[in-house]
Amino acid sequence: MAAAQVTYDHVIVGGGTAGCLLANRLSADPQRRVLLIEAGPPDNYHWIHIPVGYLYCIGNPRTDWLYQTDPDAGLNGRQLRYPRGRTLGGCSSINGMIYMRGQSRDYDGWAAATGSDDWAWRSVLPYFLLHEDYHGGAQPLHGAQGTMPALLQADANGGAGDAHGNAYLQSLRARGAGGEWRVERQRLRWDILDAFSQAAQQAGIAASFDFNQGNNEGVGYFEVNQRSGWRWNTAKAFLRPARGRRNLDVWVNSQVQRLLVDTDADGMPRCSGLVLWNGREAVTVHAHHEVILAAGSIGTPQLLQLSGIGPGALLRQHGIEVRHDLPGVGENLQDHLQIRAVFKVEQVPTLNVLASSLAGKARIGLEYALKRSGPMSMAPSQLGAFARSDAGREWPNLEYHVQPLSLDAFGEPLHAFPAFTASVCNLNPTSRGRVRIRSPRVEDAPSIAPQYLSTDEDRRVAAESLRLTRRIVAQPALAKYKPVEWKPGTQYQTDDELARLAGDIATTIFHPVGTTKMGRESDPMAVVDARLRVLGVRGLRVVDAGVMPSITSGNTNSPTLMIAERAAQWIAEAAAERT
């Protein structure tokens, strides 16, 4: 029996963070038929929507791909669990819900790497605002002489110009309202976190009430993607409003097997569609305009390699016909590695104590049921801080995630004693890893080798960050709680000791990016151009965190949405030109 065949204008692979926004934006034109394909199930698992439910989603095959890294020399041979969302909403259904744009320098660096001002801070800021719904309402550009629409028009004309140039925009503050992506304050506070904030200020880190101004230096509570105490994922924000459109189809539990790569008359490779398995039959899907890969920093390079697009030697090793030798596919993997320091405390409540009894757990559940507040509304990290590992840094290069709890490892029970955890990560790691297929079978998870702490720079920053943590905790604001460093332990002092220690206790903060990076055509490791078209292959685009040439200075979910917002405009424009 012949496989079923269907044709759409736009075919989106991956119903995660980027895919849900793309489906919304591209299907807004009723003349375009759009298909969104998700390998996982719908987002109807109740723990997706309760904020603390990430504890039950990560490591659960219903919502997580269950990846593991290879043994890592920088982690002294350890392997790490590597969660990636496998459900509608993707990682936005299982992540920490923290809203963070990053720093203006991140995007100016992307502009330099690609040779395109489309990625400069002044250009991308309006695309964050297009879908933002900030709890405080729209906030003006402080001191600006023009409105946001004026900035959008300036951007369309090739940049913000001298009057609103990049140096100015680095210091502005602007928030959007009325968009789909809800941003709220957290619905809790903790005495121990307030004390840590005061201690950080005593150590020279200023208070911050908004980490999204272009320079996120400071200490304060994170803002989160929640609505009234519920997780707000991209499936609810972007896909749900579009589901009634007759020109949008959403297929779940459908695993793409490979892309269809043909050859144009001039010998140029072209992606004309794909083959998937929906649990019952193989289906061939053709794309009239483009196939758009939004399967994430792990899934997208895996699918490209399985389809014959990637490093030629790797593909031949697995018996895959090389359709286009593109060495950068799967390379340039970057991630934020967090070093978790645990401090015992006295005479202050922490979750370790509050959740230690059935009565305590009942009170926590009742508070959430009645008020949608308290520990069940918690993001995995509540208090944040951005700081410099040494005074010579021009920008903050460290991010803290501080929690009123402690445990040996994610998924393990809370400790029996009161404690807090101060996790710190290097925002701008110089270590680079890779993602490579292990076999020609899509069912086999790829090899993931982050190669953490593989540079002298990263090991030095790891040691400096632990010293800064100790300096913060030694400040007077925390003294009344008598903090004692339980992990790693004060016996470790030298750079070598602290770097090795980081390898023993550090873990991923779930921010893999860069495996299909954008860049100039002259860059031998670039995979897509500045408009996210796969180099050397027509009809194929990548729109996910993999296109970041360098990791953002903060959490990566909302920057991925901005990337999708930009790409949706370009995809629609390209389709209109071909019509």
Automatic annotation (TrEMBL):
Molecular-function GO term, any one: oxidoreductase activity, acting on CH-OH group of donors
Domain of life assignment: Bacteria
Matching SUPFAM superfamilies: FAD-linked reductases, C-terminal domain, FAD/NAD(P)-binding domain
Identify which cofactors the protein needs according to its UniProt entry: FAD
InterPro entries per record? FAD/NAD-bd_sf, GMC_OxRdtase, GMC_OxRdtase_N, GMC_OxRtase_C
- From the UniProt record, list the coiled-coil ranges: none
Query: Which keywords does UniProt give here?
Result: FAD, Flavoprotein
Q: Does the keyword RNA-binding apply?
A: no
Chain sites annotated for binding FAD = V256
- Give me the segments passing through the membrane: none
Which stretches make up the Glucose-methanol-choline oxidoreductase N-terminal domain? 296-310
Family from the record: Belongs to the GMC oxidoreductase family.
The protein depicted here goes by the name: GMC family oxidoreductase N-terminal domain-containing protein
Per the UniProt record, the lineage of the source organism begins with: Bacteria, Pseudomonadati, Pseudomonadota, Betaproteobacteria, Burkholderiales
